[in-house]
Amino acid sequence: MDTRVNGAPSPAPDAPGLSAADHLRDRLGLTGTKVACGSGVCGACTILVDGAPTASCLLPADHLAGRSVTTVEGLDGAHPAQRALAAHDGLQCGYCTPGFAVEASVFVDAWRAEHGDTRPGRGEIADALAGHLCRCGAYEGIFSAVAAACAGEFDTEPDQAPPRADAPAKVTGSARFSADFAPPGTWEGVIVRSTVPHARVLKVSVDPGPGGAAPPLVDLLGEDRVVRYVGQPIAAVAAPTRAAARELAGAVRVDLEPLPAVTDPEAARAPGAPVLYPTKEERAAAPTYGEAPTPAAPWNGNVRGPGVLLGF
Ligand code: FES
Ligand code: FES
């Protein structure tokens, strides 16, 4: 049986080791499918495989052979869920939006088929979208958008422009982010992360490549050489291709000395619990929630709407 992508015949994926997301983005140019976590947690890469929402970052590309695949581009921007997300401002940066739109399209269709044009409860929407994370926190708009689409309020194009000028491009997957461009000569980077919650890192190393050259390895640890959560960046590597960069990351050796850790709030409050930043100086130097130095200029809020863009 032929592989079909967005209704058209498509070459069967033939590169072993490639994910479905990589195949769609890199081979077919369908960059509306985003990869954020790359590990099945965030839902940004959701596509439909034979109509079922699927995390394409975890799916081997050859599993698409003979299947019918729909990406956000295949919804054509005409699905009520897409119109509603734009109209209800259910997005900010828009990186998670294609995944939400694809998943919501299935939920909205199924809900209306079973319940008619009625509003689901918040819990039902939350259950349907449980596999999706929006780091910008646009959840209120997403909830109200999905409810309105289920109620049949977006079966036609709304008269009013959406509050955010770039919303149509973001709900259709046509908005292009920096990760969607790869000029010739671009290298791929991979972050090596901590697999333990608390440890002192003694050494980070990688064997020399062919010819004895040291592969590019950037140490990302602070002066105290301590990791304090699973997933904390330890080092970065880069290579001309994604596969080579991943292979290099897999070859990085991290020697560490485990430190005591707690994984629940009760244990963290117990007397004698391990302290992440024991001294006043360490606490003062600890990273803040902002993840970056204080900007030099004040931030005046999110700028939105065509009037603002045109300087009115
Ligand atoms: S990128 Fe696939 S689930 Fe996050
Ligand atoms: S809109 Fe930015 S992550 Fe959801």
Can you characterise this structure?
The model is unreliable at 307-312 (pLDDT under 50). The protein has 312 residues and is of the alpha+beta class. Helix 2 (80-87) packs across helix 3. The chain has helices spanning 20-27, 80-87, 97-115, 122-128, 139-150, 167-172, 242-251, 265-269, 280-285, 306-309, and strands spanning 3-5, 8-10, 46-49, 52-55, 68-70, 188-193, 199-205, 217-219, 226-227, 233-239, 253-258. The protein is built from ten helices and eleven strands. It folds into two domains: 1-178, Ubiquitin-like (UB roll), CATH 3.10.20; 188-262, Aldehyde Oxidoreductase, domain 3 (Alpha-Beta Complex), CATH 3.90.1170. Helix content is 27%, strand content 15%. Strands 2-1-5-3-4 form a five-stranded mixed beta sheet, with helices on one face. One FE2/S2 (inorganic) cluster binds next to loops. Residues 1-75 form the 2Fe-2S ferredoxin-type domain. Keywords: Iron, Metal-binding, Molybdenum, Oxidoreductase.
